[in-house]
């Protein structure tokens, strides 16, 4: 098999990670929101806005670290709006999510046009932090242990979230906020605050994922560059049903299919990008067909909480 | 927060001086209604204090204020004699008021332990071992068996309630509110709860038991306060309660609740025997596996003018039987004949057209659409039918006329025919259902728990309707968990247990015992 | 939003009632127009921040979209496909189904229509050819919703996700088809064959307004009347409001779910067909106007009311047509209209919330 050369495999793995990390971050975030009972359809907008603010700050300051922080901040700003409108004021979560995504799309495209449409600035790559001696392992080393800080953070977050969900009061509180908010309220925990915080963290993670796309992967900001990744992350979170490790697996799988084009080109096979772009979505449909109703959602998902209302 | 200064009251004989919790002149208004009007009630340690009242008498609002969900507009709450603001559920807990709501307040997807741990400092890990031990200890003290590691969704409603009572006690509640606690329980579980309440007060806890059932109030209460239209209309002290017979107490309570002379129609004898007409509904060997409880080999006949009761503990296939008969759930074998005609796999609509009607017990869940106008809800099962639609197009005049007739004939209290049905009270929603199912070409009417959750006036009105339907020559299938209701209304009573009919008893002398025997004899079959 | 209004005018009952009526209508006015004004002001601030003069921008947009003959005609022509999308969404949302896959349904239908209609032109008379095009569009749209419909009807799988996925899939598939299968051999640019202008939907009177506008208007009004006045519409609303009550009433929820998806997606597909047959004549590679997700907020602004939707679609159409001209002339990209719609929706949500709170306070 000439196809499976070392070059092909490494390209595929690196590509899977590059495309998978934004999905992982956003997916972990969405999982948090869904656990707490908020269907965060605005995820796409949060990613996109994070991609923009991240790129802007990284370009202006010359620091990718600041850029990532700004990306998380940008996502959190959109999430704050979402929390205000849906969690506090109880507006429809789906319509608000779509509106925020539209707003982020329009706004970032507009700002991009005003600021960058003549100069098209580019960022250099992000500094890799090799973890010696693991980085010397053939194949795996350069792929897994010679990466940037956000990659390590994202993978660590999988463990952190798994720990939070299983081992802390916070995990139980989140579960209650999504499944039986009245029970959480009766236990003396503020449901609105719990949900708002979950949405804010979701926004920060999605924004960081977006910034990863613009700063670490593409090196530029392009309007509409999140290209449905936010929506894929929503599906990932739904299929993972509260298990962070499943988000990781799903993100790598989807990332792999997204990066297949480049890898195939390295291997000398020319497949149109559009065909490849269909892969992740086709995969979601396939998984849904097979997994069927198991893609369960929390009881109170999408419903706003009003104390004392039945 | 507060030192448990209360000395545990050893017995229920004499109430200690100061009440644990007291409502002083509490008034609470909602748009358009005064839910509570200057209510004063004192709760003492070591007593089961029953708050009795019809639906809408203001019981839930009182609970809401005691548990911190709502705040009084006027008046206030005193705890240990000191005026206290109960601003949130957490605050209520911290001053020792624990509430077990009618609808479970446990998170089904968490274990019992994690439900108990809910509300701890968020970054900490719950002390699961310690909590489990504490649960076992407290449960043992009260004679309960609870598995701390069980997922709440795997527990029965009665078990969930026990878990909630345990949780309230373990959080240091000195005053325990049980809101309509028996409404969702089987009769057996209700008796067990009654015994648990006695054990709780024996340990010095003050229990507030909210109910609209007279017999429970008399059976379990030390002190009874009666609420009517938001006002506290009277209180029966422990001494009086003990000094009188149950019948006398019941009479006193009824006169307090309704302000009228007691007794009327509450407990009548069996219906006078009458001759019945032809067989209208004939069910033979009916089986279905589609529901939660499989239904097996059902044989039933109902004649015109006859009321056939179906007795049994809730959840033994009654709902499934009703739905299979109505065509909502598929049968797997057997036959249903309506006036000699085999129904086979006829749809709900076809059966309805043939005269088979079904009054569901889930009035808001499936019987009506809360956001739709009353007028539309009358027609949910006849969408597209003449004269209300012509060639598929709505005729508002006809719809309005029918609605006005129904509202008048069935005495439905509604601001208008265009009012969303969800804004009406439970009793009036039931009237909407009755109007829809009992008019037109009805031949057989199946009632599923028709008086469940209604207040006494509406219970009476509904029972009267059922008798009228039979007197008008309709065949009636009356599914109920209330044995007194069945004995009052039915001509014959079939007993259902685990999806099978265990036998049918002709109503009359000795029927109660016969039914009891059939209910408990199921094991041998 | 002030509390003084709630103090009742003592004594004069008649005047109080008149006041209340006036107040009520004022409130409705404030709630419906206030958000629009707020959105335009916020948008203006945004323009200002970007270094444009908001007054000259808005002035230019209004002048182009409404008061120049060609611009006004373009505004009306653009309404056709948008109204069909609105009709598609109203059917689905009123029946409680979130068909968010309109973009895929629209684009795939457009591509198939663009690919077939020029080929059959010689065979069929123009009117029959157009009819065929409309049918193909509706059929392709409906077909693309089949999988989400079946998954929802039989497996209960959340349709938000499946329709979104099918939408992305459809958009990519449409691109693949344009680039690989339906290429016009006559040109080097990747696009489908072009339908000659004389074989497109007839224009209205002497103007350049496409008769697609009439199709769109008819669709929205018919959908509105069907949903509010007919037995079929009531069945759909019943399923949407309470599926269990629908089962209790003997309706087949799976069958109605599939019907709703088919109608909704067929209307979205029809929108694609009308856009191709009336305006564009062909599909270029990577073209995707993404109307559907944009119209979602519009129909919600109109509270799923057909006539309200016509008004909002007109407004949005004017904003985009004017915005596209402004993009060329003033240099403000046309994405600006997206921002305005989003802000408008958020403002409306806020206004409704404030109104509700105000009413609750007034009642006490």
From TrEMBL, chain A:
Q: Where in the cell is it found?
A: Cell membrane
The reply to whether DNA-binding figures as a keyword in the UniProt entry is no
Q: How does it sit in the membrane?
A: Multi-pass membrane protein
Q: Does the keyword Transmembrane apply?
A: yes
Record's Pfam families?
BPD_transp_2
UniProt entry keywords in alphabetical sequence:
Cell membrane, Membrane, Transmembrane, Transmembrane helix
Q: Which residues form a coiled coil?
A: none
Regions that span the bilayer: 6-26, 38-59, 65-87, 94-114, 149-165, 197-215, 221-239, 246-269, 275-292
Q: What is this protein called?
A: ABC transporter permease
Q: Which organism is it from?
A: Mesorhizobium marinum
- Organismal lineage: Bacteria, Pseudomonadati, Pseudomonadota, Alphaproteobacteria, Hyphomicrobiales
Automatic annotation (TrEMBL), chain B:
Which GO terms label this protein's molecular function in UniProt? ATP binding
Per UniProt, which keywords does this protein have? ATP-binding, Nucleotide-binding
- Which Gene3D superfamilies does the UniProt record give? P-loop containing nucleotide triphosphate hydrolases
Q: Name one Pfam family in it.
A: ABC_tran
Identify the residues that the record assigns to the ABC transporter domain, covering every copy: 21-254, 275-523
Which SMART domains does the record cross-reference, listed alphabetically? Answer: AAA
The cross-references to CDD domains, in alphabetical order and at most eight, read: ABC_Carb_Monos_I (cd03216), ABC_Carb_Monos_II (cd03215)
Sequence similarity: Belongs to the ABC transporter superfamily.
Specify the protein name. ABC transporter ATP-binding protein
UniProtKB/TrEMBL annotation, chain C:
Superkingdom field: Bacteria
The answer to keyword Transmembrane applying to this record is: yes
Membrane topology label: Multi-pass membrane protein
Q: Which UniProt keywords apply?
A: Cell membrane, Membrane, Transmembrane, Transmembrane helix
A Pfam family this protein belongs to? BPD_transp_2
Q: Which residue spans traverse the membrane?
A: 36-60, 81-100, 106-124, 131-154, 160-183, 204-227, 247-270, 291-315, 335-354
List localization entries: Cell membrane
Principal cellular location given in the protein's record: membrane
This one is known as: ABC transporter permease
Species this chain originates from: Mesorhizobium marinum
């Amino acid at each position: 098999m000439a196809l499976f050369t070392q070059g092909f495999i490494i390209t595929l793995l690196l590509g899977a990670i590059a495309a998978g990390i934004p999905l992982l971050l956003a997916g972990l975030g969405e999982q948090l929101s869904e656990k707490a009972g908020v269907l965060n359809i605005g995820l796409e907008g949060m990613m996109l806005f994070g991609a923009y603010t991240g790129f802007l700050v990284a370009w202006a300051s010359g620091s990718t670290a600041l850029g990532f922080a700004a990306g998380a901040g940008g996502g959190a700003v959109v999430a704050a709006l979402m929390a205000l409108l849906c969690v506090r004021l109880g507006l429809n979560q789906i319509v608000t999510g779509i509106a925020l995504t539209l707003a982020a799309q329009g706004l970032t495209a507009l700002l991009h046009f005003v600021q960058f449409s003549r100069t098209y600035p580019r960022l250099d790559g992000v500094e890799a932090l090799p973890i010696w001696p693991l980085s010397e392992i053939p194949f795996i080393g350069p792929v897994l242990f010679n990466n940037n800080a956000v990659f390590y953070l994202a993978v660590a977050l999988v463990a952190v979230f798994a720990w939070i969900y299983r081992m802390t009061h916070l995990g139980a509180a989140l579960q209650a906020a999504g499944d039986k908010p009245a029970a959480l309220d009766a236990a003396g925990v503020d449901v609105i605050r719990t949900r708002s915080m979950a949405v804010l963290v979701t926004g920060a993670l999605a924004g960081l994922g977006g910034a990863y796309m613009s700063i670490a992967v593409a090196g530029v900001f392009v309007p509409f560059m999140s290209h449905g990744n936010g929506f894929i992350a929503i599906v990932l979170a739904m299929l993972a049903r509260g298990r962070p490790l499943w988000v990781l697996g799903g993100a790598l799988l989807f990332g792999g299919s997204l990066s297949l084009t480049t890898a195939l080109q390295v291997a000398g096979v020319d497949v149109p990008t559009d065909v490849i772009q269909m892969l992740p979505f086709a995969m979601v449909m396939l998984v849904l067909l097979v997994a069927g109703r198991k893609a369960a959602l929390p009881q109170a998902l999408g419903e706003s909480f009003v104390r004392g209302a039945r | 927060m507060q030192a448990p200064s209360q000395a545990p009251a050893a017995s229920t004989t004499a109430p200690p001086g100061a009440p644990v919790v007291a409502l002083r002149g509490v008034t609470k208004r909602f748009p358009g209604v005064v839910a509570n009007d200057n209510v004063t009630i004192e709760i003492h340690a070591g007593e089961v204090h029953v708050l009795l009242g019809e639906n809408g008498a203001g019981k839930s609002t009182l609970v809401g204020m005691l548990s911190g969900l709502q705040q009084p507009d006027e008046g206030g709450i005193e705890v240990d004699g000191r005026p206290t603001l109960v601003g949130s559920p957490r605050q209520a807990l911290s001053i020792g008021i624990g509430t077990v709501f009618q609808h479970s307040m446990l998170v089904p997807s968490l274990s019992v332990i994690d439900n108990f741990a809910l509300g701890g400092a968020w970054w900490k890990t719950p002390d699961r071992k310690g909590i489990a031990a504490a649960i076992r200890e407290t449960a043992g003290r009260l004679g309960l068996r609870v598995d701390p590691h069980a997922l709440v969704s795997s527990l029965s409603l009665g078990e969930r309630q026990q878990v909630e009572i345990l949780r309230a006690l373990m959080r240091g509640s000195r005053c325990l509110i049980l809101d309509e606690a028996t409404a969702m329980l089987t009769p057996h579980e209700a008796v067990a709860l009654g015994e648990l309440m006695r054990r709780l007060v024996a340990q010095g806890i003050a229990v507030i038991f909210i109910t609209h059932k007279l017999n429970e109030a008399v059976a379990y209460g030390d002190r009874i306060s009666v609420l009517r239209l938001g006002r506290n209309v009277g209180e029966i002290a422990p001494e009086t309660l003990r000094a009188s017979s149950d019948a006398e107490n019941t009479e006193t309570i009824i006169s307090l609740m309704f302000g009228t002379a007691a007794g009327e129609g509450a407990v009548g004898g069996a219906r006078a025997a009458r001759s019945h007409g032809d067989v209208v509904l004939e069910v033979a060997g009916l089986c279905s596996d589609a529901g939660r409880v499989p239904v097996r080999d059902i044989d039933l006949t109902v004649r015109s003018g006859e009321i056939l009761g179906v007795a049994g503990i809730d959840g033994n296939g009654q709902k499934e039987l009703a739905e299979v008969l109505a065509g909502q759930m598929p049968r797997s074998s057997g036959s249903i004949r309506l006036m000699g005609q085999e129904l086979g796999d006829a749809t709900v609509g076809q059966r309805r057209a043939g005269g088979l009607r079904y009054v569901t017990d889930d009035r808001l869940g499936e019987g009506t659409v809360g956001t739709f106008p009353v007028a539309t809800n009358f027609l949910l099962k006849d969408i597209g039918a003449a004269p209300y639609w012509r060639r598929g197009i709505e005729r508002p005049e006809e719809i309005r006329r029918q609605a006005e007739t129904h509202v008048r004939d069935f005495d439905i209290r509604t601001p208008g025919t265009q009012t969303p049905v969800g804004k009406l009270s439970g009793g009036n929603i039931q009237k909407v259902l009755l109007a829809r199912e009992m008019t037109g070409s009805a031949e057989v009417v199946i009632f599923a728990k028709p008086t469940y959750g209604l207040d006494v006036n509406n219970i009476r009105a509904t029972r009267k309707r059922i008798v009228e339907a039979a007197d008008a020559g309709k065949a009636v299938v009356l599914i109920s968990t209330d044995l007194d209701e069945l004995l009052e209304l039915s001509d014959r009573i079939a007993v259902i247990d685990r999806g099978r009919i265990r036998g049918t008893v002709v109503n009359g002398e000795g029927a109660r015992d016969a039914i009891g025997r059939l209910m408990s004899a199921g094991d041998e079959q | 939003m002030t509390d003084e209004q709630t103090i009742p005018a003592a004594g004069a009952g008649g005047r109080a009632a008149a006041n209340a009526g006036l107040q009520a209508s004022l409130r409705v006015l404030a709630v419906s127009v206030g958000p629009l004004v707020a959105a335009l002001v916020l948008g203006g601030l945004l323009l200002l921040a970007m270094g444009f003069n908001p007054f000259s921008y808005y002035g230019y947009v209004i002048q182009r979209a409404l008061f120049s003959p060609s611009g006004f005609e373009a505004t009306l022509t653009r309404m056709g496909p948008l109204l069909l999308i609105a009709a598609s969404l109203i059917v689905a949302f009123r029946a409680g189904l979130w068909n968010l896959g309109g973009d895929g349904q629209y684009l795939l239908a457009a591509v198939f229509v663009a690919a077939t209609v020029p080929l059959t032109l010689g065979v069929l008379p123009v009117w029959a050819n157009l009819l065929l095009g409309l049918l193909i569009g509706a059929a392709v749209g409906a077909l693309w919703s089949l999988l989400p419909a079946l998954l929802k009807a039989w497996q209960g799988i959340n349709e938000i996700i499946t329709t979104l996925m099918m939408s992305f899939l459809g958009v990519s598939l449409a691109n693949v088809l344009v680039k690989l299968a339906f290429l016009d051999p006559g040109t080097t640019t990747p696009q489908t064959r072009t339908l000659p202008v004389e074989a497109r939907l007839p224009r209205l009177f002497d103007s350049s307004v496409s008769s697609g506008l009439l199709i769109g208007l008819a669709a929205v009004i018919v959908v509105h009347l069907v949903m509010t006045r007919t037995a079929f519409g009531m069945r759909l609303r019943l399923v949407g409001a309470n599926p269990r009550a629908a089962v209790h009433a003997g309706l087949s929820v799976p069958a109605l779910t599939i019907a709703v998806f088919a109608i909704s997606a067929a209307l979205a597909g029809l929108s694609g067909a009308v856009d191709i047959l009336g305006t564009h004549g062909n599909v270029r590679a990577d073209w995707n106007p993404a109307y559907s997700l944009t119209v979602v907020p519009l129909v919600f602004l109109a509270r799923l009311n057909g006539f309200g939707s016509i008004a909002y679609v007109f407004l949005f159409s004017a904003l985009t047509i004017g915005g596209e001209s402004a993009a060329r002339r003033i240099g403000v990209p046309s994405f600006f209209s997206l921002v305005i719609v989003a802000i408008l929706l958020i403002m409306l949500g806020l206004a409704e919330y404030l109104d509700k709170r105000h009413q609750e306070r007034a009642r006490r």
